[in-house]
Amino acid sequence: MKYGFVTYDDINNRLDKLVNSKTVNKVRKKTPIAYSPCGFPINLYEIGNGDKHFVIMSGTHGTEIIGPDLVIQMIEFFANNSDINLENITLDFIPLQNPEGFIVVTESIKPYMKDLTADEFEKISHDYWDNYRLDDRRYIIINELLKSLGDEDTDDFWNIYRCKNIDKHQLWEFCLNRFNITKEQLLEKWKIANVDSLFSSNVLMVGNRYKVFGKINYEMLPEKDERYQKLKSKIKTIMDSDYDGYKFPSESLIDWRCNSNGVDLNRNCPEVLNLKLKEIEKKSVLFGNYRFNNLRREIPGPQGVASVNLDNFTFEPENRGLLLHLQKLAKNKKYLGCISYHGTGAVIYCHPLRLEKSFNENKAIRIDSINELYADIYSSVTGYSKVDYPDKITGTGDMIRNLIPGFLIVELSRMGGNPLSPYGDKNGNYKSIIIDNIKAIIKLIDFLSSLEKNKIKE
Length: 458
Prior knowledge:
By secondary structure, the chain is of the alpha/beta class.
């Protein structure tokens, strides 16, 4: 287990070393499945000699650095382990689907990480986790208070204070002025909602998670070649834009989920765009929920939109490349499945939308049964919970699950808060992520390999 802060250069150096080494199981670098808008390759690596392929990918969101960290260690493990039999199966690794977002996040915080010892890195990651949870609690508890007083729609409060620091007096006066209650009645509701637990001082800061770092802005992004220069220029344009008085906080570069176009790859599908347009019809300004309630979402930015053009949907190149790779394997009857690693949650998204509405019954049963089987095997090792059936398609992963069987999204860390929280407990949470997920993949691959071996015999 290799614990520490990983960067884009770290990933490429470690992979290049593997490709050029005589490992037990050869690592082969294939033609990139795509190139990002700024020209960074979406690299594909293979290990194994089987005709059927199982795809392991990560890094859809730039903030989720734990995913690429895990996949790199997984590649190193499979490359150097003689006990792994890959004669009947080939593993396809896509370590970083969104290199641009990954570069933005890691380069923004690298100055505060590069000279830290392992213990210091663990401490700053744990501090980040504490502050991240405070950002969540801030929104949840205030909403609970307002709803207990009769406000089902809490937007009025957040439209006033969404991007501002809040002190106890302001919240207290807002409640007294808005609701027909006495101070005694408000105090009772205040205590029930546990509002005082939010305030370590009298002022509740916007973006507590930002306090862990010093000054963060796009000037920290490198300009090593034309790709990096273009990336920095595009990020500068987004961050410097003024939207009727609103600008993204410079520190929100650590929240950069999307690519340089400001598109969230996991929301980059037609169904999400249609949902988004319906929301925009109701409200022209949209903010993220909970800890992202200071970041607008209907414009390209850290949280990302569903499409560059809201009137005419387009897939981003990173998603086009992934879809073509998976569909080509499926068309040639070489596809076994795919796991896409995301950052936090310790859950498995395996169930497709209730397919009977869109597909014939046989296909619905086949996709659902295969996904359920894979998820059960995976959960038996990691203990991750399976998420129930969705009621609508809310992401690209949902869309893919309705097209081909065996596509799972696995949320890794039990300590929520990208990018650093998964590293906040080195010997507990982090160690479990790396070891348990490698074991889970081994168990799943052993199962699939035995199936392929039996088919060959038949």
